[in-house]
Amino acid sequence: DEPKISKGKAISRELIAAIEGSRFALIVLSQNYASSTWCLDELLHILKFMEAREAVLPIFYYVDPSHVRKQTGCFEKAFTQLEERFSYDEKTKVQEWRDALAKVADFSGWKAKD
Length: 114
What we know:
By secondary structure, this protein is of the alpha/beta class. The protein has helices at 13-21, 37-50, 65-70, 74-85, 91-105, and strands spanning 25-29, 56-61, 110-112. The protein has one domain (13-112): Rossmann fold (3-Layer(aba) Sandwich).
């Protein structure tokens, strides 16, 4: 955790360096995950630097992995809002986030339940 993170800001160089220097990543996917561009940008960096090492473990925190993969339910709602918020030129970024979530949902992970 970085205490001085402001909502809506780009992820810092320090965080990117920490991702690059990590041996593995735990990605906690919750109901509000796709509403955070910060989390989605972090996910892109994690996949870029760690996917080849197979060092990514998704944790599905009270969400169904199929909802993450197919972007249904709360993920569909979040992406609808993101697409409304971003201009036509920025739609590629939204698609990158969609692709990253679909990819991470296919990894072996852990599902939190009641």
